[in-house]
Amino acid sequence: MKNKYKITGFTRLLIFLILLTPIAYIGANYYQGEDGIEKIKILLGRTQDIDTEISKKKQEIKKLEEKLQKSKEELSKLENKE
After folding, report:
1. What pLDDT is recorded for position 53?
2. How confident is the model at residue 47, as a pLDDT?
3. Considering Cα of 17, then 20, then 26, then 30, what sign does the dihedral take?
4. What's the pLDDT score for residue 44?
5. Alpha helices by DSSP H, 1-82
6. d(CA 63, CA 56)
7. 65-77 mean pLDDT
8. How far apart are CA 60 and CA 20, in angstroms?
9. 4: helix, strand or coil
């Protein structure tokens, strides 16, 4: 007996893309050193960890400010030597 429903090539393509796209997105984010699953949760609005995201950004800003301060101090030392 023949199947009642036949899957067309276009349907197969859509199913393939639906499965491949999230996997590729997660892989690209992990390659860049980020958390791909968390980014998907944020995009879908299913996360309540906005406070943790903000605290991570604040910590990153603090580290960058410290690095900037060290660079300024090093620059002033080099300028004083001349």
Report:
1. 77
2. 60
3. negative
4. 78
5. 9-31, 36-44, 50-81
6. 11
7. 94
8. 32
9. coil
